[in-house]
Structures are given as structure tokens and as C-alpha cells.
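Q: How would the C-alpha cells look for this protein?
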Amino acid sequence: MKPKRPVFLELWRIKLPAMGLVSILHRVSGVLLVLAIPFFADLLRLSLADQQGFEAASATLGSWPVRLVLVVLAWAVLHHLFAGIRYLALDLGLGLERETARATARTAIAAALVVLVLGVLL
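A: Here is the predicted structure in C-alpha cell form.
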């Protein structure tokens, strides 16, 4: 007897539990941070070259598309930090119960967003 398996999955209709969402976002945030390294390394090189390079780097960081990227990267750092702390606790055997794991997953998501909003507003 063949097991009944879905033939077509609509990924945006699947409701992930909070733990799954944190896991995926942790990976996405890590990838974003790694992909940002060459851009910011080049920006640092430009800013340290001379006065014109510093002004060009400042102008680049002041543009609204780059500011939007900076906000996304700030979220990535915060989410990666809070989810990483959560995973460290799980590796130590803390919070393995289902309800606790759900609560810490929600807390990691919320903490990253709250700290991001506070950082942007202040």
C-alpha cells in the first residue's frame, strides 16, 4: 500500500510552528549576514582610503536603499543573536519541553523585533 503523500505543496499555505519559523529565520539571517560581508568590507576599504573615499562611503550609507538594507541587517543580527542564545540553551538541555520551546521561539522572534524597533526609534 502506497502512503498518501501530497503531490503539490503550497509553501505559503503551510503554517509552521514557531520553532520551525525561528529555525528558518535563523538560517536566513545567517546567510544575509554572510552575504553582506563583501559589501561592507569594500565600504570600509573605501572609507579608509582617503577623504573622498570617506565622503563617498558616508553618502552611500546615507542613501535610503542602503538604510533599508541596514535595517534588514540589524534585524538579521538581532534575530541571529536571540535565536542563537535559544539554540545554545537547547543544546544545554534547557527548554526542551514543548510549551517552553514554543515560548522561547516566540520570545526570540519578538525580542529581535522589539529591540530593532527601539533601535530605529531611538
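The radius of gyration is 20 Å.

The domain at 18-121 is CATH 1.20.1300.10 (3 helical TM bundles of succinate and fumarate reductases).

Upvote if useful.
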